[in-house]
Structures are given as structure tokens and as C-alpha cells.
Amino acid sequence: MQILGFEFELPAEFRVEKISSTGAGSCIDIMGKNAGSLAAALAEQAVAVGFSESKQEAGRIKLERGEQRLLLIHDAEGLTIQTYDPTTLPRARFDGSAVLLGDLRFECGATSIAPLRETYLHDKHLRSGAWRLSGVSAPEVVARVLDTAATSRSLKRGAVFGPPRGGEEVWSGEAYSKVELVKVHATVESGVVLLEIDLIDNRGHIG
């Protein structure tokens, strides 16, 4: 079987129960005893092709290679392999100090923008984008995105919510109507802001 570009031979005593995928992610359920040894062997092979182990705890091994993520979850009954590979997705779009998603342009006031990935789930009418921004604060960029959504789409603007006391530095908010929703999260990571925007557009799909 192939996992994130490398081949792994499944021992005869194991069988694939279910495979599912959505967007850049996939999930493989494998049934069989002694799944811990199978997870260890798979992790060892992943490391050999460039993955690094980022976290290990009871029943879970997490590995990463660039943007790719590989999560191995095992118990007495079998192994679940979860993969995430955004390298198969297009780059998120931007123009100068603004980010672009669908037909919307959000002026962020950033001094630099590093685009990550954009996804589109047709059945849910959901488009998502992610970027890393410099030169702007997380609460400021959330407010800017909400203001743009409210003025350009006549959406109702919600409040900007800050992080809980002692929690992760994440600011969020949303703007909405009966048929559209813009959700935004801005997370402070090592001095830059990770901006994530979800756009649900049900115009023409209601009724």
C-alpha cells in the first residue's frame, strides 16, 4: 500500500477495513492483532523516507515531513492511519498586502504574506484559505477581514473574540447572512500571524 508517496507492505495477518478521504486528508482503518508493532514498523519506514517524529504517546505516533502529516493510532484491535497532504492543493492567493478567497479581497495591512493552501469542498460550498502574515496583529487582521465581509457582502458583522486566559493566542470572529458565512481565525505563531478564513457561500443553492 502507498502512504504519502512511499510503499509499505501490509503483513498478511492484517487487513484493510475501510479507506476514506476528504480534501487533503485520508483515513485508513486496519484490523489485526499486535497493531503496535505494525505502527512502529510504519513509523520507522516513514522516518527512512524523510519524516520526523514530532510526538509519541500511548497508542499514538505523529510524524511530519514539510507540510505533510502522518498520524498512527493503534489499540488492541487494529491501527488507524490518518494522513494530511496539503501539497496536493493549490496555493492560497494574495495580492500585495491583501489575501484573496473566492471573489473576496481582504486587505490585511501586512508587510509580508506567505501563502499556504486553499481548499474547496464543492458539496459543502466551502472554500478555505490559510496564510502567514507579518507586520500586523492578530486582533487587527480579524477585525479587517470582518469589516471587509460586512461592507462588500452586506453581512452582519460579529464581534472579535480573543483567547481564553492562559490559552493559545487565537483571535476569531464571523460575519454572516442567511446564505453566506465568513469565519476567520488568527493565531500568533513565533512572531507571525497564521490567518485562516472559511467562506461558505450558499447563494443559488437554497430551496
Short description:
The chain is mainly beta and 207 residues long. It contains 2 helices and 17 strands.
Mind explaining what this structure looks like?
The protein is 14% helix and 50% strand. By secondary structure, the chain is mainly β. The protein has 2 domains: 85 residues, TATA-Binding Protein, CATH 3.30.310; 113 residues, TATA-Binding Protein, CATH 3.30.310. The protein has a 6-stranded antiparallel sheet, with helices on one face. A hairpin with a 2-residue loop joins strand 6 and strand 7. The chain is elongated, with a radius of gyration of 20 Å. The mean pLDDT is 91.
Secondary-structure topology with pairs:
Elements: E1 2-3, E2 6-7, E3 15-22, E4 25-31, H1 35-48, E5 52-57, E6 60-65, E7 68-74, E8 78-84, E9 93-95, E10 98-101, E11 104-107, E12 112-121, E13 126-134, H2 138-153, E14 156-157, E15 170-176, E16 180-189, E17 192-201
Antiparallel strand pairs: 1-2, 3-4, 4-8, 5-6, 6-7, 7-8, 9-10, 10-11, 12-13, 13-17, 14-15, 15-16, 16-17
- Global structural class: mainly beta
User: What number is the mean pLDDT?
Assistant: 91
Radius of gyration: 20 Å
Oligomer: single chain
Structure characteristics:
TATA-Binding Protein; 2 helices; 6-stranded antiparallel β-sheet; 207 residues; 2 domains; elongated; mainly beta
